[in-house]
Amino acid sequence: MDVNVAVKSGVKIRAFYLFFLMVGAQLGVGTIGASRYIFTFAKQDSWISILIALLFMMLTVVVMFYILDQYENADIFGIQVDVFGSFIGKILGTVYIIYFGAALVSVLLTYIEIIQVFLYPTFPAYVISFLSLSLAIYCIFGGIRVITGAAFIFILLTQPLLFLLIDPATRMYSEHFLPILQASPQELLQGAWATTYTLSGFEMLFLIYPFIKNKEKAKLPTFLGIAYSAFILFITTIILIGYYSLRYIQHIESSLITLFKSISFTFLERIDYFVIAEWMMVILPNNILLMWGMTYGLKRLYSIKQRHSIFILAAIILVIVSIIKYDYKILRISDYVGQVGFWLIFVYPFVLLPCVMIKKKWRKKKGMEKP
């Protein structure tokens, strides 16, 4: 396989849209319960853990950009084959594909569980899965530009949900944040680690980068995108801690939905019903990008056309989601995805960087040109 990706100019997207692709890849079902998991470790200092996670994300993205800049127009699949050879490189690329598949299953299962808990307990899992996967397939058939447009539209349509949080924000108690800095450094880091499942997704930069037209402007929208995702988690966590009793937070499973549930209007009593339905638009960019990442990886590594693999993968995922029903199994899958994601997304780029640099120095020593 070629290390660099040949992309036609008419298919490329402007760097501006990386903001929406990063936000679309990060925000999803993890945001619904992330604040409670972070609070489990860092308590009222959870907001500090989120800032720590943001700084580490920024550093990781800097490393990712440095790796990508060493090549003309390569993605993670081509880079791994170039650095580690065809056999090991394809194995590592396959790990990414499996991770994308597991993450997609986790997203669908978690959203279905939320629907069954808060709305319809007997609602069939395969219905939501089929609808979501059908929309993902439709967008992927349109190419990267349609995928980008879907992320752009769905993100804009879901932002008004934030204004609903003004009501609980006006009823917060500042005493809930005191005393500050009571969590130990270890607890703060554990709280930052708890954001992994929610804030993962920016690894899509490794796949999308070859499709960027003006790469020299790619850094700013990417950093703004991940900063905005962290800001959403930061705000929801702040409101949760300020609104609810600190003892009560530890027992809330879907903390963000519970927060929306406390809001009511004279013309609409159960606002959480509306939010859960609207959240389908939040997870759709997740589903589309993860499905695209799987099919794109198979195309790059094994020359399997996306039009052929997408239906097979969708059928497999639909069967898996329909079989898994119990909440403890769903939680276990999400935990596994978060643990693997931590090493693959937050740690692996720092391991890959020296390997790329050694490869680059070896090429210079041999008098070889850049790939």
DSSP strand tally: 0
Approximate shape? globular
Oligomeric state of shown chains? single chain
Please give the CATH class: Mainly Alpha
SSE order in H/E notation?
A: HHHHHHHHHHHHHHHHH
User: In the CATH scheme, what's the topology name?
Assistant: Amino acid/polyamine transporter I
Q: Give helix % range.
A: over 70%
Largest sheet: none
3D architecture notes:
The protein is an all-alpha fold. It has one domain: Amino acid/polyamine transporter I. 72% of the residues lie in helices and 0% in strands. It is built from 17 helices and no strands. The chain has helices spanning 18-26, 30-42, 46-69, 76-84, 86-118, 125-142, 144-158, 166-169, 185-193, 196-199, 205-208, 219-243, 246-249, 255-261, 271-302, 306-323, 327-366. The longest helix is centred in the C-terminal third of the chain and has 40 residues, at 327-366. The two termini are 12 Å apart.
Which descriptors apply to this entry?
371 residues, mainly alpha, 0% strand
Summarize the structure.
With 371 residues, this protein is mainly alpha-helical. The chain contains 17 helices and no strands. The chain has one domain: Amino acid/polyamine transporter I.
